[in-house]
Amino acid sequence: MSSILGSCHCGRVKWESIGDIETVVRCYCSICRKTQGGDYGVWVVVPAKGFSILEGADHINKYEGTNVSSKKYCSVCGTTVHCTNGNHYPGYMLLARGTIDEGNELSTKIQVYTQHKYEWIDVLKDSPAVF
Ligand SMILES: [Zn+2]
Ligand SMILES: [Zn+2]
To answer: Does pTM surpass 0.85?
Structure first.
């Protein structure tokens, strides 16, 4: 059982996740690239039932990316609060590692959609590619 805290860049929205971390996934898909603005997304997968907003709920907006995936974000600074992926992780929330206050402690465990990565990005040697 662990507790992790996250917050957006402007500081208006703060959240907490209580419960065992399922995994930490680096995803190379095009949705992660677009919605996170990076070469890949890195997600800390936590049980949805242990997630709660501590401050700033009024500032959260929702974007429905697909019929099973959505993203909530701070309407002031745009930082991702969490995503859901009903396809691969029903019942879980995906927290962007960069938004977690102690993200340095959460190293990547698995990789997915490596076939979609930019060709000049090296996959991690010690993390299995699972789909
Ligand atoms: Zn913010
Ligand atoms: Zn992805």
So the answer is: yes
